[in-house]
Design goal:
seven-stranded mixed β-sheet; single chain; Metallo-beta-lactamase, Chain A; four-stranded mixed β-sheet; 17 strands; alpha/beta; globular; binds zinc ion
């Protein structure tokens, strides 16, 4: 599907249930996440429709190792020559690729969030085979990305042990919240977590940041007063 503009310099590429994001940096495009296996061509098509070339993607940031986020990475790295980035806890799984079977807890246990048992069983099914690919740079909270210095790297474990999210300090703050929670049709838990308590702590931690806009791995972006909505949901009430 074609890329949709969220705000100047930020596009979402919807990939049938999961989102990838394109950011316009000064020296080229930055891609956040790569969809599921087989999504690379769709992402390149969306880039093409924006009048850009595959080689314009210079950096690929992965929020976490799950197949619906790293699935297109190896193919996109080949097509673009981009540098790749992930947190050191998830990077080894991404490099290796292979068979992922979340129902059996391979490579890590993954359990439904409270109240999510039914959709979890419905959507988290089967074994996925993912091609691994090199992660050129392991990134940690507080690292400065020289190609996008106002993009904060924030450690956000729970849904995945090595998840990172990104806060771009433009337009009043754009949070790329990955799968810390989902927004279908409103803010709610993600379907599953590798460590639910850690995931709750992460949601509360992110309530301490300011951002106007929030985007999600699953669901629509919140385009205004996103931090206020976030705090109402994750800080003041449930967590
Ligand atoms: Zn995930
Ligand atoms: Zn996901």
């Amino acid at each position: 599907m074609a890329a949709k503009k969220i705000v100047d310099g930020v596009y979402v590429i919807p990939l049938g249930g999961v989102n990838a994001f394109l950011l316009e940096a000064q020296d080229g495009l930055v891609l956040i996440d790569t969809g599921s296996p087989g999504n690379a061509d769709e992402i390149l098509l969306a880039v093409n429709e924006l009048g850009k070339q595959p080689g314009d993607i210079h950096h690929i940031l992965l929020t976490h190792w799950h197949p619906d986020h790293m699935g297109g990475m190896a193919a996109l790295k080949r097509a673009t020559g981009a540098q790749t980035y992930a947190h050191p806890i998830d990077a080894p799984i991404i490099r290796e690729g292979g068979v992922f079977d979340p129902v059996s807890g391979v490579p890590r246990p993954f359990l439904p969030a409270p109240g999510m048992e039914f959709p979890f069983r419905q959507f988290i099914t089967g074994v996925v085979n993912v091609e691994g690919g090199e992660i050129d740079h392991e990134i940690n909270e507080g690292d400065i990305l020289t190609f996008l210095p106002d993009l904060k790297v924030i450690f956000a474990p729970g849904h995945s042990d090595g998840q990172v999210v990104f806060l771009w300090e433009v337009h009043g703050g754009v949070l790329f919240a990955a799968d810390t929670c989902a927004n279908i049709p409103m803010l709610n838990w993600s379907l599953g977590y590798e460590n639910f308590n850690e995931g709750k702590r992460t949601l509360k931690k992110l309530a301490g940041y300011d951002f106007q806009i929030a985007t999600f791995g699953h669901g629509d972006a919140i385009l205004k007063d996103a931090a206020i909505e976030w705090r109402r949901k994750w800080h003041d009430k449930q967590v």
